[in-house]
Amino acid sequence: MSTRNRELPAPTRDRLAALSAPRASQIPMAVRHTQRVAKLRRNIVWGVGGIVTICAVFLAYHFISSLAIDLRFAHIGFQGARITIEQPRLVGYQKDGRQYELKARMGVQDIHKPDIFELEGLEARLEMGQGLPVLLTSAAAVYDGKQDRAELSNGVRIFDEKNYDLRLESATMDFKASTLVSQRPATLKLDCCDVDGKAVELAQAESRLTFTGAVHSTFHEQKTEPGTGSK
């Protein structure tokens, strides 16, 4: 018997029809899948970035607010683990309760060392009771908020606008105790003379200034006003 015209079973015909039928293109589905994956990745990146930013802001606020000093600023930014602070203003207190204030053009704080501030263009004001306030300037400083102490460098000046004007290369200032120490050359400018030394120690509360090492004084010539000379 010939099998040429024998009909195939129905299940077999259905499978063959499915294989031979034209298939819809899979490209649009693949494109949509790729777009969904790309969008998901972007959302993950933005989400992680937002979380990191929020954490950084929280840590900065936590570190700054935990200090024993009052800190204010105009603007704050982040550079990795370092916080950049524009126009920081710090307020602290001396041993006797009198206030001191620090201002700077720029400050940098490392979140791993929250008590340390690197300051540029430091200006300080120390209240001295009934006397004139003591003013201090320094081109650069590293301030320790926990110790109330600063390492001053690149040119330092401390003065009271009336009695004295002390110029130094660098110094260590203890704001809590109102003392300043320097092992570098310093010059004290007075109305009558200039005093130079290789090292100096200032105790503001005791009104004491001590020079050591090759100390010498240069007296200014007294200016005689016209018509007041001896006849």
UniProtKB/TrEMBL annotation:
Pfam families in alphabetical order: LptC (PF06835)
Transmembrane spans: 44-64
Q: What Gene3D superfamilies does this protein's entry cite?
A: Lipopolysaccharide (LPS) transport protein A like domain (2.60.450.10)
Q: Which domain of life is it from?
A: Bacteria
The record's InterPro entries line, in alphabetical order, gives:
LipoPS_assembly_LptC-rel
Alphabetical UniProt keywords: Membrane, Transmembrane, Transmembrane helix
- Output this protein's name: LPS export ABC transporter periplasmic protein LptC
Q: What is the scientific name of the source organism?
A: Methylocystis bryophila
Which lineage do the record's taxonomy fields give for this organism? Bacteria, Pseudomonadati, Pseudomonadota, Alphaproteobacteria, Hyphomicrobiales
